[in-house]
Amino acid sequence: MTEDRRLAVLRAIVEDYVATHEPVGSRSLVERHSLGVSPATIRNDMAALEDEGLIAQPHTSAGRVPTDQGYRVFVDRLSQVKPLSGAERRAIGSFLDGAVDLDDVMQRSVRLLSQLTRQVALIQYPSLTRSTVRHTELVGLTPTRALLVVITDTGRVEQRVVETSVAMDDELVARIRSKVSEAVNGQRLVDVADRVADLTGTFERDERPAVAAVVATLLETVVERHEERVMLAGTANLAAFGEDFNGAVRPVLEALEEQMVLLRLLGETRSGDALTVRIGHENEVEGLTSTSVVTVGYARGDEVVAQLGVLGPTRMDYPGTMASVRAVARYVGRILTEQQ
Amino acid sequence: MTEDRRLAVLRAIVEDYVATHEPVGSRSLVERHSLGVSPATIRNDMAALEDEGLIAQPHTSAGRVPTDQGYRVFVDRLSQVKPLSGAERRAIGSFLDGAVDLDDVMQRSVRLLSQLTRQVALIQYPSLTRSTVRHTELVGLTPTRALLVVITDTGRVEQRVVETSVAMDDELVARIRSKVSEAVNGQRLVDVADRVADLTGTFERDERPAVAAVVATLLETVVERHEERVMLAGTANLAAFGEDFNGAVRPVLEALEEQMVLLRLLGETRSGDALTVRIGHENEVEGLTSTSVVTVGYARGDEVVAQLGVLGPTRMDYPGTMASVRAVARYVGRILTEQQ
DNA sequence: ATTGGCACTCGTCGGCGCGGAGTGCCAAGG
DNA sequence: CCTTGGCACTCCGCGCCGACGAGTGCCAAT
């Protein structure tokens, strides 16, 4: 059937191009893959694929290169999951098992992922939305400044400085601390807002500004900041990227320095733990339109708490990358769940 | 005097080369600088400078380029401080004034510095050695795991998970917490070790393993980890770096991902707040031998607490970079001191 | 010590020709 | 109707050559 072969040709083109980074022609295609037909036939198929917008040629009389759409079809319909090698599996286990705290888990994971894929790896800290408050602490720094610390059951520690217009003495700080603790400890973060809603009213009128400031900061901490942090690793791998088009690496590095961009990259498709691939221009971030991003959610228990993934050139090894990303996500999930 | 002019020539070569990134010849030198002599004379001087190892020519019959040693002499003897422009001063003020907490100060500073210098900026978190413990907290997570949080008067929060072989119940956790707090709160970090030395002995024999674990973690936190963190920004500026020699950017990116390397870069010359410049091969870190690093200490009060600086190609604008680094360090110091 | 002159080196750039890889088309064959 | 071999065409990449120009080193004159 001709349609089947056309897709086989597309797959072959993608695979060869990813392997060699050079436009692939009909002749070398039949040599490297046993397609059972002649170069001329392949040429016809290629012309058709080009009409469909799945491949393109950089110059007349050069080989073909997959387009973003071509990769899309490849990823959606043609790539079969590539199992990890034993060495890779072992690497994952030994790399992640020694982690001592949340920061350590995040850091080891992201490094591991960048090494496995030889690309830039990203990991988002677990979302706080579903977790509960383990402990709150309020420490006076100066009369008008205090430090609010919130510890969650995921082992994450959030801290914010509270500024008040009026002075607080130690006794007031202690009273606010105990009231706040009482109200929110053990509560889920999403419920914190409700629990502290009328806390201010239970204090004397002249103490209320201070209490209000603490409450406001607490809400910021648990509501607004809740998935702000992204860690990344493997930016050195962009150098290989740049072999081909050198100037393209700067905008990528610039984009990667923006927390907001990273969050968008990881957060855009909040489709649970499904593995998503955004290819080239599908990526709306300016400067990253010639890169692909592979992300997947990872879970604590059976709750998806955040995303991790990698970013690389559109001509990446999608099956391999997808396998690595998925595997690391699974391991991270397991570790978070065990540490629970 | 001929010696004077030779140095003037060196200065001119460095300035022109930094500005143009191209080898500079005798003719263009006399045109751009009013040296009052003819190209032929300059050529003689250049030959002498080359004998001294201060300049070199990439190819026969090309212009001259400063060597690492040439830059060294330039920095040590020839560069005069370049005052910041009004715009730059204003930028520094407005950029840093809105900072709300320590992380924010660090982040804003390092970004500012990278933007001012168009290079990679580094900043080390303030050392804990001289600060005091404001507050300690111990929170049970599971029977054998607890979270230890130490808050210092600089507003820095350190956290570590404590693992014990034996289970701790809530009551024991509370007792350890209060004993530890009592022992170390208000103490300087350097004294913490002494204060907790015989703490374990005051507990029942079967409780001691748990206490020992907490104490050990506490010591790690305040002693070993005390200046571990380095933040960096402006890696995108390496792209401009790479225009010339493309492959050189990868090892730099790799080096920058290693915390240890960053610490060595900032920490190697612990000469108080003096501004230090390490040029090319003076830099012992492999992969960074064709970069220069400009660092300076910054203070809280009158105590130097850490270093900050930038990393860039050896052909950087040293006077401008040094001025920016020094200015930012001064501002950061001022902010830390005020927040005290 | 400085300077003008001069021969020499060498890297850069454009032009030229060639080989090779690849394409598109067409006519013949299953 | 699909496949295939043949063929003409395109165009990139490469090596070669020559001209140009920037820059140097040396030397003799001042």
Mean pLDDT of chain A comes to: 87
Biggest β-sheet: strands ordered side by side in the sheet of chain A = 7-3-10-9-8
* Dominant shape of chain A: elongated
Number of helices of chain A: 13
Fraction in beta strands of chain A: 15-25%
Describe this structure in words.
Two copies of one chain form a homodimer. Chain A is α+β, with helices and mostly antiparallel strands and 340 residues long. In chain A, 48% of the residues lie in helices and 19% in strands. In chain A, the strands form three sheets. Chain A has a five-stranded antiparallel beta sheet with strand order 7-3-10-9-8, with helices on both faces. In chain A, strand 1 and strand 2 form a beta hairpin. The first copy, chain A, is elongated and about 90 Å long. The interface between A and B is medium-sized, with 34 and 35 residues. The structure holds a DNA duplex (30 and 30 nucleotides).
